[in-house]
Specification:
The chain is mostly helical. About 75% of the residues lie in helices and about 0% in strands.
Amino acid sequence: MAEESATEKGGIRFNIEEIAGAVGDFGTIFPILLGVAIVCPDVSVSHFFLFFAAWFIITGLYYRLPIPIEPMKAIGAIVIAEGLCAGEIVASGIIVGVLFLLLGLAGGMTWLGEHIPKSVIRGVQAGLALLLLRTSLGYILADVLVAAISIGIILAFFVASQRTRVPDVSALLVLIIGLAAGIAAQGMPPFRLMPLPVPVIPMPADFITATWDLVLPQIPLTIANAILATSLLTYDLFPKKGVDPDRLSRTIGAMNLVSTPLGGFPMCHGAGGLAAMYRFGARTGGANIVAGLLILIFAVAFAPPEVLTLIPFGVFGALLVFVALELGKHSAKTESYLVTAVIAVLTLLIGLTFAFIIGMVLAYAQKWWTGRRGAGA
């Protein structure tokens, strides 16, 4: 394949296509990290950005392909919706880090992927989308005009990116406009050097809450989208350099074990992010290195926590709508609308973990009933 030529010898390139592809997945990264920082005052968004920048660069050098780094969406959505604290975030990162590192070392990803029905995964995506939409509504109502302008910009870029090769940098643009408006109204925040990361030690109760509220809903999404779907897509796009799912699982485990105890946010890979980066021109790890350097600028810029207060709430509401719609779009690709819809509704009513368990039972019951009817026929 012609598209393969840039990576056949493991090369890394830096050109306009790689730069355009570098920002292809920023629409997922910024809304979740900034949303978490708003509801959770004991975290440092500057450290979030710092570790994302570092792992983008490391992953680009390691895989030499545009393998994205994304926030774990289930953990992000639930933290934003429920306002959980730093201890629970760190605990969730340690747990998923150990889990996926061990799974990757043991070669267990394929087996797990075969035993979680796709309809359940789609239901988790739909439930997360509804949680984010509910949260975003509060931000939008607090600042309707700014939210409307931001949503308009996002929609304009979405339409343009679908019809042309213009990269969708709407999240970045909306964020910059919001910062500029805040500076114009409130003045520049004081300059501060980014503090060095320090270890965060979760309490025992944080591990219990993190396991139940954050980790269990995140596991199916990470297995299906961050690992299995991403691996499959690498073989589609780069047949000679496809990445084994257990290898992806190991890097997810490693980066969470290293980063979250020092104040980073739980992170993973993602098939949607890879598709977005590739669509706008990324073909090598050079796109990852560029993305890491750009995100590093935000790590420095957000060192003063006052920077967060400069951004109008309407901007956050619009960005969260963007992520919710992206998740909702993927949830429609289900093999059982009943299972997916039940999980989505129950997520709003009783929480995502209970909804996931009930959805698993319903999916297997539906499979058993379908098999019984087929045998009877």
